[in-house]
Amino acid sequence: MRGIDTNVLLRTIDLANPLQVAAVEKFLDEAVNEPLFVNHIVLSEFAWTLERTYKRPRKEIALRLRHILEAPDFVVPNADVVGQAISAFEASKAQFPDCLIGATNLASGCDTTLSFDKDAVAVSSLFSPLTT
Question: Which of 87, 50, 88, 45 is nearest to 66 (CA)?
């Protein structure tokens, strides 16, 4: 199995560099029998870049994350945890990386994840406020 980084994943939606897009399309066509590994850091960077650089709405970001999660071309570790993070992201103002942190910590046995981030702590199933 081979892993991909965020830039490869972004070329599936950013068509600005035709040479890179062609390389990614060829690579994906050749990898049809070998799913590609997409780790949590790549998913976090992907979501962050879609929001900050490409100004994509949350609904679209969540949809694209779900497509990656469900596509047979990709292997995402702890897919159920990522699914929980996507759901929390969709239902709140918290950023996807924060939701993924909270969901991962919960799955790892934590009761909660402490944070100062007001948007994150609004997701009470994953976070608790750390007060000063």
Answer: 87
Q: How far apart are CA 115 and CA 86, in angstroms?
A: 19
Whether pLDDT at 116 is above 80 = yes
Quote the pTM value.
0.91
Residue 37's pLDDT band, with cuts at 50, 70 and 90, is: very high
* Spatial CB neighbours of 115, under 8 Å, sequence gap ≥ 6: 98, 121, 127, 128, 129, 130
